[in-house]
Batch of 3 targets.
Target 1
Amino acid sequence: MKYLCLIYDDEKQWVKFPKEVQDQYMGDYGAFTESIKKSGQYVGANQLQPSDTATIVRSRNGKVSTTDGPFVETKEQLGGYYLIEAKDLNDAIQVASRIPSARSGSIEVRPVVERPA
Amino acid sequence: MQEDIAARVRDRVDAIYRSDSRRVLATLIRLLGDFDLAEEALQDAFATAVEQWVEKGIPENPRTWLISTGRFKAIDRLRKSARFESVGGSALERLEAAETPELDEDGVEDDRLRLIFTCCHPALSADAQIALTLREVCGLTTEEVAHAFLTPPPTLAQRIVRAKGKIRDARIPYEIPSRSDLPSRLDSVLHVIYLVFNEGYLTSSGASLTRADLSGEAIRLGRLLVELLPEPEAMGLLALMILHEARRPSRTTASGEMVLLEDQDRSLWNRAQIDEGVELVERALGSHRFGPYTLQAAIAAVHAEAVNPAATDWTQIVGLYDVLLRADPSPVIELNRAAAIAMRDGPEAGLSRIDAILARGDLTEYHLAHAARGDLCRRLGRVEDAIGAYSRALELASQEPERRFIARRLEELRLTSPR
């Protein structure tokens, strides 16, 4: 079964980190990604540009409106995701707990709806 | 004659339902992989038992008979629904492909643990864990759980439906946690049991101070857990609950007024429960793997063993609070420790510690911190300070018997006040 692990972290904090700390983080991410590729749990992953690059799009009665996002100011912002394959929720929690940002921010684990092909 | 047999069978089925329906359910959930399907299968199995046992006699092993009958009934149901709609197809294929399961005694007991750990999974909200545990593990009806928690039944039913939906859709596994996950997962189970107990023992608001049914249910759960998984902290929690329960008859007067520990009639305490609690505490302490529940139980045991308030071993109680504070640092435990120090070394020593906690900004909204402060000021003869502290406690207290108790203290103090 697939789970989407959404990574939330304080992006303002991130830019304040010295370069060594950022490098260390990226190194940890690289090692983590490698480990779940090896275990066959990796399906996909991406890091996102900071939330001030976001645009909110709505279409109402054929009229498209775009606004500067995100809608609400929160302490932690969505910064990236992993899509993983896991046996069950406990297995997915185990993987999510090893994502480097779990130590500073939080990971939201969402099961993916499965439909017969 | 025939009617006699029918009545006897019905009685027997009722008795088996009371003693074994939760075991049968726990195993059916594993075999069928779905809570709702298992509950329907359980009802079907018992209904079939009433019909068939009258004619064919009571089977040698009724529990195994009920489990396999329930499983076949569930397969039947899935077949019927698969004919009309496409749902249930994959579950049906999986069930039909599986061999008829072997049902040994250990397996059935493991299923009960699986059920407990699944209902108390930390991915479910605390409210949902409690509702699901009381409903599925204890077998209370939705109405009973709703009544006990002063929640409208539809709200509670919705909570249970959502929790089952999350177990199914997020695929919370039906399993006993691995060794490495066990301590944290066990904490979550113990927490649910303790919340149920406290809800029965010290209802957070309302007119009645105790709701014995919930405490009794929590103790039954605690016993079951110790029987299935004799971990020290499970024993510690059971001991703590039993030792509190032993004092229940003396905690309130006939008119529902609160009685402080030092004023309780100790001849009303239940000796058999105290003995059982003390023995459990000793077993848990002997493991050297105990934690906060065992330490709290040990403190309760020291109180329970004192024949009168003056005989209380306060030195030992302060020592146990020291250990507890290291294991589980919290301002509430610090407050209790300060109260114990006051008993050992005099009110002044306790008061300075409580003032230090409040000065830090901790517990400033906690009524018992102000009540404890009021009591120590009263003992020191600082009447005005005592009135101030009790007044603050009264503003913050929400439970009627506690409010009445504090109000009585205030009245007594105002009578002695020079103004």
Target 2
Amino acid sequence: MISLKRTNLAMAVSASLLAVITVIAVSKGAVEIHLLGMTEVQRDILLYVRIPRVLLAGLVGASLVLSGTLFQYVMKNPLADSFTTGVSASSAMGAVVAIMLGLGPVLPVFALAGGLTGLAAVYKISSVRGRVQPITMLLAGIVISTFASATISLMKFLSDDAVSSIIFWLMGGFQSASMGKVATLAGVLAASFAVIRRDYLSLDIICFDDTTASSSGVDVARLRRKAFFIAALLTAFSVGYAGIIGFVGLVVPHVVRLLRYVKAAELIPLSLLCGALFMILNDLVARTVLSEGQELPVGIITSSIGGVFFLYLLIKRKKELYYFD
Amino acid sequence: MIELRGIKARQGGFTLSVEGVTLKQGEFVAVLGNNGSGKSTFLSVLAGLRNYEGGYLLDGRDFRELPPPERHGRISLLPQMTTLNMPFDVFYVVLTGRFIHTNGLNYTEADIEATEQAMEALDITHLRERQFNELSGGEKQRVLLARTINKDTSVILLDEPLSGIDILHQHDSIRLLKDLSRKKLVMVVIHDLSLALREFERFLFFTGGTLSYVAGKHELEEERLSEIFGVRVNFLRHDKGILVYTEGR
């Protein structure tokens, strides 16, 4: 089939790009590293700083994109992602609570609990008969995000020693990367992907209204619960390890969709690769654009690059590709 | 075969009630009634999409006891309104009708072949590559009809499948459904009384949420229909059958 060939080609192209960018990203930074002929110091930087950081950026990018894509499927809403649904902020709130209680090691559990609570609230507020109203969802997401951010600020106010680490949740970044985090997130992402790829056909069918989807033989309620949980899980780990980074989960799947990869079997794997690519690129820019080893928060870059590209595609091709009803 | 006894289904202030009726494979059944009379609710109860009280046997087995995959494997439903929020092409939309025949992971060659046939039957092969959401109302309806038929179940429930379809394709669609009803139970919600009387053999009429009148083609009475629809119904007989002429109040 032609579409399969086209997809495989796109996968091959994005995987090669990902490999190239990864190599560039580990060699560039405050200290330039030539992969052939390294000094001992350079090798230590490469192994303990650069590689974990680049890998974590890639994994967080892929995770946020998978969670955003799943939110868009189950909420039947093109504006949904972990950021706009308030799940990121509520996960961050959970993470900060864990720090305040001195429970750093189980931080992702708290982040997940926070994220699920926020998600349940937003879903409850904005759904009418199983369909999430886009505008209400955005409003509810803003309210939940604001509430979660206010809570984080309050905790920051109440406890001075935790300030610096708390600010990190709100800004986002990969400074605290480690191989342990890389391994954990890789495991979570691989497991999530393995589970959800068995539901590609069902995910396509829930793009129809619920009555049509149910009578087609898809257990809509069960799939929705499963996808929500996986999306919240990926958000919780991403936020737990890299703070709140907006926009990636929204932009990347849209771009892939605008390139006419619209079936879940094409859209999801391609989005994952592009998400990793996009985030590594953003982090690379964030840590190399200023001189003398200074860093910009990566969220600023994701929002600017992502926003401009998204706007361009949206204006050019919105008519043919977006039908909300 | 569908056997219903003392069915009640409530939603808000509305109650659907069906005292009793038996519907068999090989029947081509028209479901009629004014707006809000319970036709769509009736179909969604039959399709297992709504809770109900009472007895519903499908091929002799209690419908409640059937696991959902088995229910959906026996009954197809074309709802009155279908929305899609992904820019799928027409071929894929029709192909998704085969979901219950898959292992959940892949569509097979057999599914693709069945899809080609369903598209041919509904004369939509030329729309194959088009985006579903770009089609006209009538074209969409034919695509959805093909999708429903593609599911290939023994019971087919269609909620106003002919709305928006041009006369040429209405004739084709009806002929196709009639052919299918030789081996299957096909039930169609329809508003056009003349068309219904010409093509269908059995009729279910709903008024105010109740299945109020079940009749065969030759038992239909003008008086009874006038009561049901709230307009004066006249049968104009001619050599090709019956034309229905209605007069408003």
Target 3
Amino acid sequence: MTILRLMYEFFKTGLFSVGGGLATLPFLYEMSDKTGWFSHADIADMIAVSESTPGAIGINMSTYAGFKTAGIPGALLASLSLAAPSVIVILIIAAFLNRFRNNPYVEGAFYGLRPASIAMITAAGINVAKVALVNTAAYAAGDLVGFFLPIPILMAVILFIAMRKLKWSPVVFIALSAVVGVILKL
Amino acid sequence: MQEYLDIYLTFARIGCITFGGGYAMLPILERELTVKRNWTTMDDLRDYFSIGQCTPGIIALNVSTFIGEKRKGIPGALCATTGFLTGPVIIILIIASFLQNFAEEPLVRHAFAGIRVCVCVLIVQAVLRLWKSSVVDLRALILYLIVFILHAFGGLMPVKIPAAVLVLMAGAAGILLSMQRIRATGKNNGKNSGKEGSAS
């Protein structure tokens, strides 16, 4: 039963996440809330893993969640379920490639889909920030000063500027952040 | 048989050497598929990317499916897609078994706390990068804000709208908002169709 549920959830994610990569994030957060297969912190960690290893976050998360809930068969079936909708859709499009490319209705739909996709990615970013930059437990206790974690916030600002100035691969910044995390005992 | 194996192995290799996903893959795919193998052209590859960008699923997977299909039809598409998945799945299986045993180590916990800060910034950068091509005018900005509020603060509303429903509604809204333009181009096509005949 769990495996069927896994396949259903990841098939749905593959079907509705338009725009690749991070577009799967809103669905992963929904899945985390609904099923408890992985935590919000797990998602943040998996984004880092995905940026530093081959493969996109969607594939990596499906493999990870599948493995955690149902071992290696779960990992394989969840990954294939995530891939299935895009394979089906692409096979259909490959047959009608030229008409699809210039269809005004398709263009219109994407005019709406693109802002929606990055709106949900923004929300996913806030979810990561809740784990990384602020202390939600302090906020719940009414402690507004303890809510903001100064060191991670300062670190985020420095990283932001560094990424704009230096065109290094994300892997490098992730590795440096890990080192800083260990040194400062974040 | 040999050719299917060749497709599978080629994409298994590509799956192992593409970091970061999305457009980061383009130069690697160009080298592997057009320079080394002549399986596709650079122009086709760019078209596959733009289609992959706006169809469900992960762009890299979509591109693999396209090229596999072009080489050897549906079986070719399946070989390419499963080939592409092989590397990442194996790597995550190794990391997952590692994480389960070591996630509680203080050293690993501190490292990931640092990494999460970096992930926040990476997401902000991704949003900024996509902003220009996505939020092209005021109506798109309003759509962005509506979806953001409905999605981010869904917990505060009487009913939380599932992300899948938001995606469908955004697509429908996009078509409705473009109706004027669609009608205009429809009329132009109508005028031209007399001259072009069955060319369209």
